[in-house]
């Protein structure tokens, strides 16, 4: 690993920025071959009875293998195979949550999430409601939210994120990750690539509106971004070391969010755009698109807008005395540096294409009219001072 879990933990109390950060509740983090063995041994030392939360695919990818190891060690386990919905997707909704709750007897001591982001969100929410811990066993490098404390759920068709808890331990077995479907690898890459705009939005919100900021945590998230980008060729070829580095980048990004206590480092306008597309797909009953694919594509869309329109919008806001943006008057060089840190949209799309992944909204079945309407409302999803919000406030979109 290029970064150390212990070093990250030290930042809880000892960050170069001088401010205390939040505690990382994750006690153990393993990435590598043999992590499933480590998971079984660790679970055995902590719990006598667990429920494995998985779906039919992740059961084959890792669930059966983990279950066998638990049996060998004498841990009592049961399986909860979360069923797909009518469209064939496993989703984190009320039906999946209830299915897990029903599968859990009164004496279950922990849930083990075996799968990608959605199964983690289901196990995260259910375990928090049961006041028991959950253990993360990712089966694909698909998202940076494995260690998140928030569980985005779809309840009665509306997506809301509930604050729950982070896993007590993460065991990412690279032998499992290497077998992940390529779409999930693309999604993980897209989620990290989205940091190109989220980091810029974070710096911009701090400059324009005094949003909380830590340059050390920003540099760690940038390290995650650069690690993934440096591996694009290896990822396209499915090389094991590249897959491992992508997973480490995703975990680093997720742990930085835990330290910061909010999602600013890893979620800016591109995530808001992606959430808006997701809600529109829910409303119209369309099949869901992987989170990271939407984020990667949204990042390209915003990169074009940010590079071409933000400086002008800042000048317009200053002239109109529009709060809080007018405070940027006289700080144009800092704005320029932030805008310059955003890669050109063509570069973002080229990286996605190099993988073979979708790069444009149309590639995801997202029509231009939806892109236009989303750009005008996505900034309202979160109370953040992103450049997307500035462009809306100044009618530059
Ligand atoms: Zn700091
Ligand atoms: Zn994300």
Describe the 3D structure.
- With 397 residues, this protein is of the alpha/beta class.
- The chain has two domains: 5-180, 3-Layer(aba) Sandwich (Rossmann fold); 183-212 and 262-393, Dehydroquinate synthase-like, alpha domain (Up-down Bundle).
- It contains 17 helices and eight strands.
- The strands form two sheets. A six-stranded parallel sheet has the order 1-8-5-4-2-3, sandwiched between helices.
- Helix 2 (35-46) crosses helix 3 (56-73), helix 9 runs antiparallel to helix 11 and helix 12 (269-283) crosses helix 16.
- It starts with a helix and ends with a helix.
- The structure holds zinc ion (ZN) (2 copies).
- One zinc ion binds at residues 143-144, 191, 271, 291, 295.
Write the layout of secondary structure elements.
Layout: H1 5-10, E1 28-32, H2 35-46, E2 49-54, H3 56-73, E3 76-81, H4 94-103, E4 110-115, H5 117-130, E5 134-138, E6 150-155, E7 158-163, E8 169-173, H6 174-177, H7 182-193, H8 195-209, H9 215-230, H10 232-236, H11 240-260, H12 269-283, H13 291-320, H14 332-340, H15 345-355, H16 368-377, H17 387-393
Parallel strand pairs: 1-8, 2-3, 2-4, 4-5, 5-8
Antiparallel strand pairs: 6-7
This protein binds zinc ion (2 copies).
